Amino acid sequence: MSHFFTIVIVNPEVEDIEAEVARLLAPYDENIEVEPYETDCWCVGRKAYLESCKIADKKCQSLNEIQEKFWNEFWTDERKKEALENPDIFEVADREWANFPDRCEWERVREHAEKEHPLYQNPDPECRDCGGTGKRTTTYNPQAKWDWWVIGGRYNGLVGNGSANPNTAPVSVLLEKGVIPFAIITPDGKWHERGEMGWFGIVSNEKEEDVWIKEIRSILEKHQNCLAVGCDLHI
What is the per-residue pLDDT for 170? Predict the structure, then answer.
């Protein structure tokens, strides 16, 4: 499962900020059930993906072992001290994990094995839900982005200045600080993201860093009179 730093922008006249954040996040709740609709079955490409993970685990190390190695290397005594004063350290951790050589090699091996698998992007002929057709009916929220969230969380203090309001600040302050989240929601309820967050911090369809930074700054500049709320989202 994954945590990711999200900024929710709210209008300055809002009195109950937490309630407004909840309202803006609500449409993206994974727990919402919608009217039944037809969609690609979960089994499409699933066997290829799972077997490619096993191959990567054998040729490299298991992803859990790689994560453990990463955290052992990341949490130096100096960084443990830094974490007490600098919440940005968790954003640094996310970036370094995304580029951790062992994780990148594991993903490279996995992707190659997945594309070589006979069921790559194909349904499982033995699937009980779709009978091998690749289509099924579901009530799963197609806009789902999170299953749990909290203001601050592991990113506590990343947005605000000082202890009074560590997770709320004028958007103009974020522009000055150069804060870059993984996702951002504007007051009109629109969701903007760098990529599609998956398990273990693995992101698909990820935008290049310079492209994403440019997009974020454009959004922030259009809402300089609003407030930004830093949130910890989980999926």
Answer: 96
Write down the H helix ranges in the chain: 17-25, 46-59, 63-74, 77-85, 88-98, 101-116, 171-177, 209-222
Query: What pLDDT, on the 0 to 100 scale, is given for residue 162?
Result: 67
User: Backbone phi, then psi, for 31, in 5-degree steps?
Assistant: -80, -10
Dihedrals phi, psi of 217, to nearest 5 degrees: -60, -35
Q: What tokens were used for 156?
A: 């506590």
Are 136 and 36 contacting, i.e. CB atoms less than 8 angstroms apart?
no
**Residue ranges per domain, the chain?**
3-32+143-234, 46-138
Of the candidates 194, 231, 190, the residue with the CA atom closest to the CA atom of residue 216: 194
40-72: per-residue pLDDT in tens?
999 999 999 999 999 999 999 999 999 999 999
Q: What are the pLDDT digits (tens) for 108-151?
A: 999 999 999 999 999 999 999 999 999 999 999 999 999 999 99
The answer to whether 21 and 227 have CB atoms below 8 angstroms apart is: no
Distance CA 220, CA 18 (A): 20
Task: Give a three-class secondary structure readout of 149-192.
Answer: EEECHHHCCCCCCCCCCCCEEEHHHHHHHCCCCCEEECCCCCEE
pLDDT at 201 (0 to 100)? 75
72, 175 in Cβ contact below 8 A?
no
